[in-house]
Amino acid sequence: MLLKTTLRLLVLVLICGLCRAEDEKGKWVPISESIFAKLAKDNLKVGYPGLTAGVTVDRASGDVFVVVCDQGLWKSSDKGATFERVDNKAIGGRCETGFALDFDPNGQRLMCFMIYGACARTLDGGKTWQKSKVQHLDFGSTDWSDPDAKTMLAIKHESGGELILSSDGAASWKSLGKGFKNATGVFGPDALLASKGKGIQRSADGGQTWADVSPLQPAGLSMRVFNGVGYWTTAEGIIVSKDKGQTWSLLGAPVKAYYGPYFGADEKNLVVVGKDGVQETKDGGATWKVVAPLPEGFRVGFTGPNFAWDPKADIFYASTMGKPAFKFQR
Questions:
Q1: Quick one: which of 10, 76, 100, 282 has the most CB atoms within 10 Å?
Q2: Contact, 55 vs 65, CB < 8 A?
Q3: What's the CA dihedral at 224, 229, 233, 239 to 10 degrees?
Q4: How many angstroms separate the CA atoms of 114 and 98, rounded?
Q5: Residue 15 reports pLDDT greater than 50
Q6: DSSP string, 236-305
Q7: How many CB atoms are located within 10 Å of the residue 268 CB?
Q8: How far apart are CA 102 and CA 221, in angstroms?
């Protein structure tokens, strides 16, 4: 009798879980409540402006990483059901832009560009961390083609557009000057990309000199590189470079995109986010389809949210300062 009752309860729990998961499909649902419950239990205070401020996904494993204001980086390996802090207190502050978390598309390696707190990187999925010599960074780009990921470009927060370069994995940095306007890209130490507000400039000598390479102005703050090709969101659509930033061309049809692109199984499957919501292409940009709206209260812009995509589980994630982290299961 007891065994039958226990089995019935287990079946009911399973059915309720399946119904809840089905009910959550096609809508943005919060996933960070368990984090705040743990912090409250330990009497730890969340910093300004409260709740979360950053989310990213390891594309290879599906692990989700959420930034909690002044309380570091938290990891979930079960699609946001549970979280544990994993940064060993190497991460501080918050993300203020949607390009503050730079994840290697091949997985494991992540650089966190934080403001009002310590910046750091992991090369092993969050097991160990190396702190940056400089903090208070709006966003940046990392050379993930290098096994040691030594080359990084970043813009310092509230600095008049000061561009800084690291050639030793954030152990040290040097200034490349001010007046740069919200764009960084790295193909390697001899191929740096930036902008001063009128198109894209490229440096082949570590930032000593710059040459104009495209009149197209990036919208996305950081170029993304996938299988050796550079991708940048612009007002005209996604532009790509196959020669380390020397030339650029539009990819497929126009699309209103700011964040991304985020990569699926191959270069034909991309996701971007803009004012129209989350959009996806499965044919290399020839056509685009809106597949999710923006979460309620989220806006697009420089001081804005982080988005992420787990292509294997087909889940979108979002976080912005002062709100919980959310997921959207299609």
A1: 100
A2: yes
A3: 170
A4: 11
A5: no
A6: TEEEEESSTTS--EE-SS-----EEEEE-SSTT-EEEEETTEEEEESSTTSS-EEEEPPPTT---SSS--
A7: 14
A8: 11
- Asked if residue 16 has pLDDT above 50, the reply is no
Q: What is the pLDDT of residue 18?
A: 41
The encoded tokens of residue 313 equal 């589980």
Residue with the two structure tokens 């992991």: 122
Task: Identify the residue with better confidence: 25 or 173.
Answer: 173
Which of these, 117, 116, 107, 162, lies nearest to 140 by C-alpha position?
Answer: 162
- How open is the CA angle 299-301-304, to the nearest 5 degrees? 65
Classify residue 228 as left (phi > 0), alpha (psi -120 to 50) or beta: left
Predicted local distance difference test score (pLDDT) of residue 243: 98
Q: What are phi and psi of 139, to 5 degrees?
A: -170, 175
Looking at the predicted structure, is the pLDDT value of residue 312 above 90?
Answer: yes
Taking the CA atoms of 266, 277, 21 and 74 in sequence, report the sign of the dihedral they define.
positive
Spatial separation of the C-alpha atoms in residues 307 and 304, rounded to whole Å: 10
Assess contact for 31 and 325: CB atoms under 8 A.
yes
The torsion angles phi and psi of 42, rounded to 5 degrees, stand at -95, 5
Counting Cβ atoms within 10 Å, is residue 163 exposed (0-12), middle (13-18) or buried (19+)?
buried
Q: What is the pLDDT of residues 110-168, one digit of tens each?
A: 999 999 999 999 999 999 999 999 999 999 999 999 999 999 999 999 999 999 999 99
